[in-house]
Amino acid sequence: MESIHFTFLNRLDVERLELTDAEILAAVESALVAQGNRETVIEPRVHLIPKDSAEGHFNVLRGVIHPLGLAGVKVVGDFVNNYKRGLPSELAVLNLFDPETGAPKAILDATSITDMRTGAMTALGAKHLARKGSKVLAHIGARGTSYWNVRLLDHLFNFDEIRVHSRREESRNAFAQRLSQDLGKLVRVTEDWESCVRGADIVVEASRLPKPEPLLKTEWIKRGALVMPYGTMSAVELSLTDIMNKMVVDDWGQCRKGLPFGSLRQHVDTDRLSEETLHAELGEIVAGKKAGRQNDDETILFWHRGLSLSDIGLAHAMLEKAKRLGIGQSLQFA
To answer: What cellular component GO annotations does this protein have (predicted)?
Structure first.
């Protein structure tokens, strides 16, 4: 048998790559184009719950991007109390394979990949679905993915005002301080959900609730706003979908009835969001198959559950840059 080698990138390797905002967005956007052109395979995520879903669980995401010649399986843990141990709430490993032979191609620490690609999906959703003149961002939540949401959104929109809120005072203050330093602008901490959300042009809900609770009120959403909720447990009212002119998801297969978790789970189960009421998957819009925002008065909802394809696309960009820079290890598999 021929010898098989694969590339290993650990956390320090990923940090040394220093991917720019533009590189991250381009990698994830290319994966969305492939999805929109039907050049991918996506399997709905599955879950492994060790004890209690309120404490945490594992997500297993699987997909193939044919233009890149890569198949990927990512296992990511999402455990709400990790901060008590000095750990991020999400820790992940991504395995990449040759889709023609099954041979391993790479193993990457995907903790940062998960954060970056989630932020990129949020930002790219806004690129195509938010009003071009959006100047006020409201962000609920301060977990790992939140930083990249705000950073990449601001890269595209250069907001006049950024408001943040999260349940724990120490976490929201630290979050705002980090963002203010890195973005070079004031990030305002709010004491409650309403003062964060009301009147914002773009609303991101990335809370981590132990159980569904409608903390984000529909009446706070202004006409023409883009709302992007993606918490594991729903924080929105059932009426949220009633005010939407368009509803977009990243992958309908991961949103349909019969699957657990997700901010719009009840909306799907009660047919408020269905194949009939869905406007498009984001990949269809990015690939030019369907329209994004068409006027400033449209109020739009974008629900992204997390795409294996964005993990694979971003990992491919990392591997290419690592090869150019001589970063990472080549390990023998067989």
So the answer is: cytoplasm
0.90 cut: is pTM over it? yes
Task: Delineate the domains of the chain, giving CATH numbers in brackets.
Answer: 5-113+309-332 (3.30.1780.10), 121-305 (3.40.50.720)
Residue whose C-alpha is closest to residue 14's, from 114, 98, 123: 114
Which amino acid type is present at position 16? R
Q: Are 90 and 77 in contact (CB under 8 A)?
A: yes
Residue 205 to residues 84, 186, 215, 219, 269, Cα–Cα distance (Å):
23, 20, 10, 15, 20
Query: How many CB atoms are located within 10 Å of the residue 245 CB?
Result: 15
Q: In whole angstroms, give the CA distance from residue 282 to residue 127.
A: 11
Tens digits of residue pLDDT in 278-315: 999 999 999 999 999 999 999 999 999 889 999 999 99
Whether 92 and 75 have beta carbons less than 8 Å apart is answered as yes
- Residue-level pLDDT at 2: 85
Q: Would you report the helix, strand and coil content of the chain in percent, each value rounded to 5?
A: 35, 25, 40
Q: In terms of DSSP bridges, do strands 188-189 and 202-205 run parallel, antiparallel, or are they unpaired?
A: unpaired
* Positions of the chain with pLDDT under 50: none
Helices (H) and strands (E) in the chain, counts: 9, 15
Query: Is 216 within 8 Å of 197 (Cβ atoms)?
Result: yes
DSSP assignment of 251-288, as one string? -GGGTSTT----TTHHHHHTTSSSTTT--EEHHHHHTT
